[in-house]
């Protein structure tokens, strides 16, 4: 019973001080070739964004031809292409923002 009383008193005294600020930063120099990897990832994201915008243009043209020629299959394929290419462009364009957002959410846990 004496141990429980001591633990209760200690929790009452040190209770507000228990949550501590934990600040962990990633090691930027721990991985060999990280600068080249960042360059490659940046180039791939740029190429992905350019290709998705190009696919958006082509899909819009296909959708237009399908709608103009009363071909529902072609128009449907164009619509799907527009939606997929818009999704790819949004993901490629917002990848850095999404990663930073989830990193900050993870730091608050």
From TrEMBL:
Record field: transmembrane: 43-68, 80-103
Pfam families to which the protein is assigned, alphabetical: DUF6112
Membrane recorded as keyword: yes
Superkingdom of origin organism: Bacteria
InterPro entries documented for this protein: DUF6112
Alphabetically ordered keywords of this record: Membrane, Transmembrane, Transmembrane helix
Tagged with keyword Transmembrane: yes
Name of the protein in question: Integral membrane protein
Lineage: Bacteria, Bacillati, Actinomycetota, Actinomycetes, Micrococcales
């Amino acid at each position: 019973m004496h141990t429980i009383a001591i633990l209760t008193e200690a929790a009452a005294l040190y209770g507000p001080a228990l949550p501590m600020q934990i600040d962990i930063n990633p090691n930027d120099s721990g991985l060999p070739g990280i600068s080249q990897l960042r360059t490659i990832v940046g180039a791939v994201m740029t190429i992905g964004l350019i290709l998705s915008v190009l696919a958006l243009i082509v899909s819009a043209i296909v959708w237009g031809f399908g709608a103009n020629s009363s071909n529902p299959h072609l128009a449907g394929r164009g619509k799907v292409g527009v939606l997929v290419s818009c999704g790819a462009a949004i993901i490629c364009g917002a990848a850095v923002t999404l990663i930073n957002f989830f990193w900050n959410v993870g730091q608050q846990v």
